Amino acid sequence: MNDQNELKNMGLKATFPRLKILDIFRRSDLDGQRHLSAEDVYRLLIAEEVDIGLATVYRVLTQFEQAGILVRSQFDGGKAVFELNDGDHHDHLICTNCGVVEEFTDSDIEARQHQVAKDHGFVLESHTMLLYGICPKCSEAGKQAKPTLRS
């Protein structure tokens, strides 16, 4: 299915800004840069000399999130990032030095989270797991972790 049809099926008109922003996410996903902030998208548009304003970027990202095309996450610092919704649940490892984000899935962790919810009488609707630490590249470079709060 092409992007124009996908947008129409989601109830969105296939406008130039929407098509261009969706294209940026598709290309970034292929390049391994899966998580983009509104500012990242805007910078990529500027680099391509595409005249789409930051307010339009925010509006389109919100529309895409509401339509289920993108998923929003908020990592350390509260900055929202978006990624294409591929329909598969995954969790994230975030480097506190360089900010690299690694995705992972673990069936044992998923099962345990569902069991914890059940043990507490909850019907789990959704969840997010974010693990913060130092990536291998930063560890090899000898960078130290930022101090963390102990519970």
Automatic annotation (TrEMBL):
Its main location: cytoplasm. Binds 1 Mn(2+) or Fe(2+) ion per subunit. Binds 1 zinc ion per subunit. It is found in: Cytoplasm. Fe cation binds at H89, D91, E110, H127. Keywords: Cytoplasm, DNA-binding, Iron, Metal-binding, Repressor, Transcription, Transcription regulation, Zinc. Pfam families: FUR. Acts as a global negative controlling element, employing Fe(2+) as a cofactor to bind the operator of the repressed genes. Belongs to the Fur family. This is Ferric uptake regulation protein.
